[in-house]
Amino acid sequence: MALLENILLHGLLAAVLLLAYLLPVMRFLSPRIWGFSDYPKEITSRVPAQTRQERRTALLISPPFFILMFVYPLVSTLILKASYGGSISLVDGFLNAFGVLMIANLADLLILDLLIVGTMTPSWVIIPGTEDMKDTAYKAFRKMHAKGHVYGTVALAVLSLIIAFIALFI
Q1: Quick one: pLDDT at residue 145?
Q2: Torsion sign over Cα 130, 136, 139, 143
Q3: In a designed cystine with 113, which of 41, 65, 145, 151 is the match (CB 3.0 to 4.6 A)?
Q4: 34 touches 26 (CB < 8 A)
Q5: Coil, strand, or helix at residue 105?
Q6: Sign, CA torsion 72/7/107/153
Q7: How does pLDDT run across 14-34, given as a tens digit for each residue?
Q8: Residue 85, class by beta-carbon neighbours within 10 Å (0-12 exposed, 13-18 middle, 19+ buried)?
Q9: Residues with Cβ < 8 Å from 59, sequence gap 6 or more?
Q10: pLDDT cut 90: percent of the chain above it
């Protein structure tokens, strides 16, 4: 039961932290900065490519995201390891890290991608110059992003395996 409790507690907290980070970034920075490459080509082909400054800004604001996606599940797995008395199996380490990451991934998909961008589509998620596509390409964003999250799940599985290996030896 400790495994499931750890996954749920840390996964829900990861989801809240991810949303607390991404929502203000999405709301108060241009959609050309965060996630520009996540938009369908149908949308991005209508506007100029990201500028050097936009790419630089995106790079500068990304460390909290990468910390949340790597360090946080590692710490969660080490907490689980401590609750097990100082040792953890590779399987439990993997399941914990993957579970934590998947809860955050689902929150991103359901709340940010499907609900906010793909359904509500507020003006602050629309790339300037593509406003006329709000009811077409931005709605198609839902299917494209759901498919992207399926592929992302494979990357999260690989990351979870790496985290589990690290937890074994720390």
Answers
A1: 84
A2: negative
A3: 145
A4: yes
A5: helix
A6: positive
A7: 999 999 999 999 999 999 998
A8: exposed
A9: none
A10: 89
Residue 31 Cα distances to 16, 26, 58, 72, 146, angstroms = 21, 6, 10, 26, 19
Give the C-alpha separation, 122 to 132, whole Å.
Answer: 13
Structure-token pair, residue 12? 């829900």
Residue count of the chain = 170
Query: pTM to 2 decimals?
Result: 0.93
Smallest CA-to-CA distance from 107 within 12, 10, 15, 8 is with 15
pLDDT digits (tens, 9 = 90+) for 22-72: 999 999 999 999 889 889 899 999 999 999 999 999 999 999 999 999 999
d(CA 93, CA 87): 10
Distance, CA of 68 to chain centre: 9
pLDDT confidence of residue 137: 93
Which tokens in the block code for residue 126?
């629309």
> Position 158: which residue type?
V
The number of domains in the chain is 1
Tokens 């439990």 label which residue?
A: 92
Domain around 101 = 2-169
